[in-house]
Amino acid sequence: MKILIVNISDIQGGAARAAYRLHEALLFQQIESKMLVIDKESNDPAVEKIGGFKGKILKEITPRLDQLKVKRYKHRTEGIFSPSSIGLSVVVDEINKIRPDIVHLHWICRSMIKIEDIKRIEAPVVWSLHDMWAFTGGCHYTEGCGGYIKGCGSCKVLGSNDTKDLSHSVFLRKKESYPHIKNMTIVGLSRWMHGCAKMSTLLKEKRHVQLPNPIDTSYFKPSDIDRAKEKWGFSKEKKIVLFSAMSATSDRRKGFYELEEALKKIEDRDLEFAVLGSDKIEKVQKDGVTMHYLGYIADDNDLRSLYNAVDLLVIPSLQENLSNAIMESLACATPVVGFDIGGNADMIEHQKSGYLVEPFDTTDLARGIEWVANCESYEDLCTYAREKVCREFESSIVAQKYIALYEEILHAD
Fold first, then answer.
1. Adjacent-strand bridge partners of 284
2. CATH 3.40.50.2000 residue window(s) in the chain
3. Is residue 287 classed exposed, middle or buried when 0-12, 13-18 and 19+ CB atoms within 10 A define those classes?
4. Beta bridge partners of 2
5. What is the 3-state secondary structure (H, E, C) of the chain?
6. CATH H-level, domain 2-214+395-412: superfamily
7. CB 9 within 8 A of CB 16
8. pLDDT exceeding 90 applies to what percent of the chain?
9. Do residues 255 and 318 make contact, with C-beta atoms less than 8 angstroms apart?
10. 3-state secondary structure 135-172
11. Residues 150, 156, 162, 166: is their CA dihedral positive or negative?
12. Which end of the chain is more exposed for a tag (fewer CB within 10 A), N or C?
């Protein structure tokens, strides 16, 4: 069985890291897996990059051209919007040239594959939804808008009041193209994403399954806490709370504003905060609380060390699918606090592996952080957190479920 995993990058970004982990897990199970990407950062010979002149155009030119129509909307939010109306046929041509048994799509925006070209893929398609883009009119997260259920227009992300705006035209392009993709299985990585996709106008007629991303729990695991704290310059006498997100302080969806409001309500002065994914590296005082801004970290060794150096992770995202950070933290036996939204409840069990916060209630967010930090049964939280990940998300277990899905698709074809 030959599986081709298609993603914009192999290891840069959350979707890339999740896709690559599946690729590695399949290889470990003796499945012939390859990746096809635009940006290759690893040295993995099983990862093929679209190179040459066309690859350069795909990486540097077409993404900018694709955003020209988006930039016309002067009141748009900071959320990502992808028309995917400009692209080269080279990616799908290469997919068909490789002749895989299954094409497993992951994150294919930034003009990697034009919407109309997906139907040209000759092999059965499996599509893992790392965000909502596949079934919306172009936004990656709806910011609370339910337009994808009936049809898009007056897009909240675009800041538009026009019912016939860009989101409406992108929606119609998908509506015309998707029926031509006869053998496509949609994978909702979380129960929330699975439910959204099944309700959507664009994908409701497709086959849907719910399977998570895998994680190697032999790698992400507990280690020497004191040594980890020393590496990151954290006080051993303080409880350290980590806030981790891509564009942590600039992306409104990541909830840094809610975290700042919660900080004002926290009475425990023995807490310090570390921010991963910020644009700066510094140590400052904010509302009487010490904040360690750590910048960006992509290396898994550093991430594993960091999860072991902190006492809990807080994920105040307003919308979230199946967070790599939550899974990694729990695997390292570090409890997590997050709003009870999206896929968070798939991983965080309330007062068992962390604390599920009443959505967007900053008082409860502060309460949850303090509850975990001062929990009398803190060690039990840590033990249960790791046990849950090992039981439900460990690489070999998840890989076997994907293999069973692939085989089922091939036998039915």
1. 291
2. 2-214+395-412, 225-392
3. exposed
4. 32
5. CEEEEECCECCCCHHHHHHHHHHHHHHHCCCEEEEEECECCCCCCCEEECCHHHHHHHHHHHHHHHCCCHHHCCCCCCCCECCCCCCCCHHHHHHHHHCCCEEEECCCCCCCCCHHHHHHCCCCEEEEECCCHHHCCCECCCCCCCHHHCCCCCCCCCCCCCCCCHHHHHHHHHHHHHHHCCCEEEEECCHHHHHHHHHCCCCCCCEEEECCCCECCCCCCCCCHHHHHHHHCCCCCCEEEEEECCCCCCCHHHCHHHHHHHHCCCCCCCEEEEEECCCCEEEEEECCEEEEEECCCCCHHHHHHHHHHCCEEEECCCCCCCCHHHHHHHHCCCCEEEECCCCHHHHCCECCCEEEECCCCHHHHHHHHHHHHCCCCHHHHHHHHHHHHHHHCEHHHHHHHHHHHHHHHHHHC
6. Glycogen Phosphorylase B; (3.40.50.2000)
7. yes
8. 83
9. yes
10. HCCCECCCCCCCHHHCCCCCCCCCCCCCCCCHHHHHHH
11. negative
12. C
Using the predicted structure, report yes or no on whether residue 135 has a pLDDT greater than 90. yes
- Compute the average pLDDT of residues 229-240: 92
Q: How far apart are CA 132 and CA 141, in angstroms?
A: 6
pLDDT tens, 167-209?
A: 999 999 999 999 999 999 999 999 999 999 999 999 999 999 9
**Per-residue pLDDT averaged across 213-237, rounded?**
94
Parallel/antiparallel/unpaired status of strands 289-294 and 281-286 = antiparallel
Phi, psi dihedrals of residue 357, rounded to the nearest 5°: -90, 140
The residues, any chain, with a CB within 8 Å of residue 409's CB and separated by 6 or more, are 102, 124, 126, 183, 185
Q: Please tell me the CATH superfamily of domain 225-392, with its number.
A: Glycogen Phosphorylase B; (3.40.50.2000)
pLDDT score recorded for residue 296 = 84
Considering only residues 285 and 106, tell me which one the structure prediction assigns the higher pLDDT. 106
Region 88-107 average pLDDT: 96
Kindly give the pairing relationship between strand 312-315 and strand 336-339: parallel
The answer to whether the beta carbons of residues 259 and 363 sit under 8 Å apart is no
Residue 291 is predicted with a pLDDT of 83
Q: For the chain, how many residues are written?
A: 413
The predicted structure's pLDDT at residue 231: 93
Confidence check: pLDDT of 298 > 80: no
Pull the structure tokens for residue 367: 């309460």
